[in-house]
């Protein structure tokens, strides 16, 4: 469970609530816990309702790239997803439907009650201090953990879910925080992508972490494991146009920081 971000801060003197909560994880968790993911609608609805009742003037909701319609994500050579691609709706089953519904709730509270709602669609946020084991971790943390274990154990082989050719873009946490503040403080209530447009295959993700760790590993592909869509990337046209935001951290730089932290955590857990 992500921590609920509910904070008061100054935007023209107004109280602001950041709703960052969801019962979610990486693809293994999302595909096997659809009911739990859907139950996050209770948190999303109750926080929005409470914010309205307490007179909060501005509300930020962290949505997800999982809201995008499946037909746009069937190939590794994916066309970057535009905000309009969420409709006609066919999002990720479970988690994606909850996120899309909660986006609409925020929209209608804005229309009906005048609450200033802001929505960002996060694309695969990663970095230090995140979940790195236990089943809820996402691909960057999982790969960092597997490579770190290979280094520390001397057993240079790892399992990769799928064929390794599925593609994603990954957003470093510092860039996500900066973009979140820009979106919250601005005047546009429409959902917007907040993600990197640096598209890589999972195999390329492993390549980068291998280079950081200074080893090569034997790769065993588990074709029966959860894989998600074949390709997903962020079209950043709108966030650049509205807010002048673009990610400042390359995937290599972000993974280097993340790997160093995960390595220390793995080493501590093995000692």
In short:
The chain is an alpha/beta fold and 271 residues long.
Task: Describe the overall structure.
The protein has 271 residues and is an alpha/beta fold. It has a single domain, classed as NAD(P)-binding Rossmann-like Domain (Rossmann fold), CATH 3.40.50.720. 41% of the residues lie in helices and 14% in strands. It has helices at 27-32, 34-53, 95-113, 139-153, 173-185, 202-213, 237-243, 251-270, and strands at 16-19, 58-64, 116-122, 125-126, 157-161, 167-168, 171-172, 192-194, 200-201, 218-222. Helix 2 packs parallel to helix 3 and helix 4 crosses helix 6 (202-213).
How are the strands ordered across the major sheet? Answer: 1-2-3-8
* Mean pLDDT across residues: 94
What is the tally of helical segments?
A: 8
User: Biggest sheet: strands, sense, closure?
Assistant: 4 strands, parallel
CATH architecture, by name, is 3-Layer(aba) Sandwich
CATH class: Alpha Beta
């Amino acid at each position: 469970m992500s921590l609920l971000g509910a904070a008061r801060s100054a935007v023209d003197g107004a109280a602001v609530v950041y709703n960052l909560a969801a019962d979610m994880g990486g693809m293994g968790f999302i595909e096997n816990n659809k009911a739990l993911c859907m139950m996050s609608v209770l948190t999303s609805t109750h926080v929005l309702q409470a914010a309205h009742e307490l007179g909060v003037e501005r509300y930020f909701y962290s949505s997800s790239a999982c809201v995008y319609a499946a037909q746009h994500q069937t190939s590794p050579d994916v066309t970057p997803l535009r905000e309009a691609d969420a409709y006609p709706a066919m999002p990720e089953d479970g988690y994606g439907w909850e996120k899309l519904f909660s986006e609409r709730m925020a929209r209608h509270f804005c229309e009906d009650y005048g609450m200033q709602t802001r929505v960002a669609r996060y694309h695969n946020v990663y970095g230090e201090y995140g979940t790195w084991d236990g089943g809820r971790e996402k691909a960057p943390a999982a790969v960092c953990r597997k490579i770190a274990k290979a280094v520390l154990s001397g057993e240079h082989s790892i399992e990769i879910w799928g064929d390794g050719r599925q593609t994603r873009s990954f957003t470093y946490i510092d860039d996500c925080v900066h973009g979140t503040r820009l979106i919250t403080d601005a005047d546009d209530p429409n959902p917007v992508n907040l993600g990197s447009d640096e598209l890589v295959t999972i195999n390329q993700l492993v390549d980068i972490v291998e280079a950081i760790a200074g080893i090569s590993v034997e790769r065993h592909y588990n074709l029966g494991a959860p894989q998600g869509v074949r390709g997903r990337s962020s079209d950043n046209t709108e966030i650049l146009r509205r807010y002048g935001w673009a990610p400042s951290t390359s995937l290599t730089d972000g993974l280097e920081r993340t790997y160093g932290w995960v390595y220390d955590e793995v080493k501590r857990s093995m000692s």
